[in-house]
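Section 3.1: Structural characterization of target chains.
Under the original work plan, the team committed to producing a structural model for every single-chain target entering the pipeline before any wet-lab resources were allocated. The record below documents one such target. The sequence was received from the expression subgroup and is listed exactly as submitted; it comprises 544 residues.
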Amino acid sequence: MRRLLTLTALPAAALAVAAVTTPSGAAADKTAAYGRFGFTTLGLGPGPQYGEPSLAIAPDGKHYAVSTPGSDGNHHGTAQVWWSANTGKSFTHTYFTSNQGGGDSALDFRPDGTLLGADLEALNTDSDSEVHISHDFGKTWNTQGSKAGSEQDRQWLAHTPDGKREFLVYHDFVAEGEFYVESDNGGQSWGVPHLVNDPSQAITAPGAAIAPAPGSPASLADQGVNTFSGPMLIANNAKDFYVVYSISNLESNATTSSGFPPYGGVKGLVVAHSADAGQTWSNKYAVTIPPDVADPSKEASVGTMFPWGFLDSAGNVYVVFGSTIAEPGSDHYGYYYVVSTDKGANWTKPRRIDGLAPGKGAVVFNAGAAVRPGVIDVAWLQKDTSGLGEDTGTFTPWFAQITGATASHPQIARQKITTVPNHRGGVCIQGILCGIAPGSADRSLLDFFQLVVNPKTHLAAIAYADNGQFAPRAGREVVFAQQTVQPKIAGAGTSKTARKTSASGTSRAGSLANTGGTPAAPIAGLGLLAVVAAGAALRRRRLG
C-alpha cells in the first residue's frame, strides 16, 4: 500500500531506534526438519526490521541473501541485509546505506554472482531507488549507489538470462502507472522510465466496470487510483516479458463499499505482456470479479496485498493470490493460482490451494516459484479459525508443491512449514487506512514475503516475518525456512506422494472449491485524493 510522504506517515519500523542484533544462527532459534518436505527454520536475530523480507539465491546455489527495508538505531537511511555462504545454514548481518534510504528494498543475484540491492529513498525529492552492488555475495557493498527511476512505490528487480539487461520495475505513485527503468552495465547506471500500461495499449473496451473477462484488455478507467505492483518476469528466450499488477474497478471506486471512495478494493489481476523484449506491451486481465451494482459489499476480492507471478522454464505464466471468490462478503480469504500456457492470452479458472473449510480461517500474502514445467512451489500465511481481520487466532506459514499445475486436475501436496506460529491475531491489508478502516489495525508484518527455488538443488527457500514470539523465537525477526526433502515428482503430471490424501493437507485440486472469502480488500493510499481534489500531485508511498 502507499503512504503519504510525511514523517508522521512513516511506519514504526522505519523510525525504530533499537539496534539490529547480530544473528547468531544458534540452535536455540532453529527448528528441526518437519513434514513431508522436511522444512527447517532459522531465526536471523531479533531486531526492529523484519517486515517484507526479500530473498535471493546466487546461481551457484550456495550463497543466499535476505533484505528488509528500514534503518536501525545505529545506521540511518539503510537497508538491512543477512547473507549466507553455506546454503542458508547460518547468516551474518550487514547493511548498505543511501542518503535518504530506508524505504522498500529488493535483491537480485545476477548471472555472474553480483548481488544488487535496491533501497527506496523515502524522503528524496525524486523518490527514486538507490541501487547498491556487492561483489562478494552480500558481505560488503559499494558506498555510492546509482539512482534508478522516480516517484516510486514498491519496486522489484529482474534481469535477462544473460544478464546484459537489468530492470527495476515499480509503481509510479503520482502517475498511478507501472514503469520500468533499465541498466545495460550491471546496475551501475540506469536509463529513463518506460511506461508498461500506456493508455494507447491498455484502455480499450470493455473498459469501465462492464464485467471484463480473463484475457480481455485491462481498463485504466477501472484502475482509477488503485494499482498494486508485482514483479517483472522474463522468459528464457529473453523476448517475452511480463509485469503483474492488480487494480480495482470503476463501480467499487464510486461506492462506499470499500469505506473510502475512490479507493475501491482489488477486483482484477492484470498481466502485461511484451513479445518484443519490452518495446511494446499488451495489458490483459488474468482474473476478474463481476461488479455487483445492487450490493457492492457482496463482491469478492482478488487480492491480499501484492499479486505475485512467476514463469516455469517452458514459459508458462503463473499468478498466485488471496481471494474471497468462494465466500464473498466474509473475511475468509482462500489461496488460489491461475496459469496461462499461451503467454497470457488465455487463463485457467482460479484453482484453490489451501485446505480451509467453508467459513473457517483465512490466508494472506502470496509467494511462489517454479521447480520445472508444470511443477510449482507456493507459500502463504494461514490461520485456521477466524477471519483475516479478526484479532483472534494465530497465523502460521504454509507451503505447497503443485504437480500437473497446467493440467485440468493438478495435484496439491501441502504442509505447515513449521508448527511455530509467526503472528498473533488479525492482519490488516489496507495500508495507511489500517486503524481507520473496520477490522484489524495490525500491519506489523508489512505486506509480503518471498519464496525462491534453489537453482542447483531445486529445493524451496523462504524468508518470512515473525513477530509472534512463540518459542523458540526470542523476539521479532526474519525467519529463514528451507526445504530439505523432495518427494518423487513423476514428470510434470502427478506423483504417488501427491495423490495421497491425509490430515496433513494433501488433496486433489480441480475446479473452484467451495471455501474461503472476504470483501475486506486492499485499498490504495490517500495521496492521489489531493491530486483529484486540489489538482496538485501529492507524493505518496508505501515506505517499508
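Helices lie at 12-15, 199-202, 220-223, 250-253, 496-499, 527-534.
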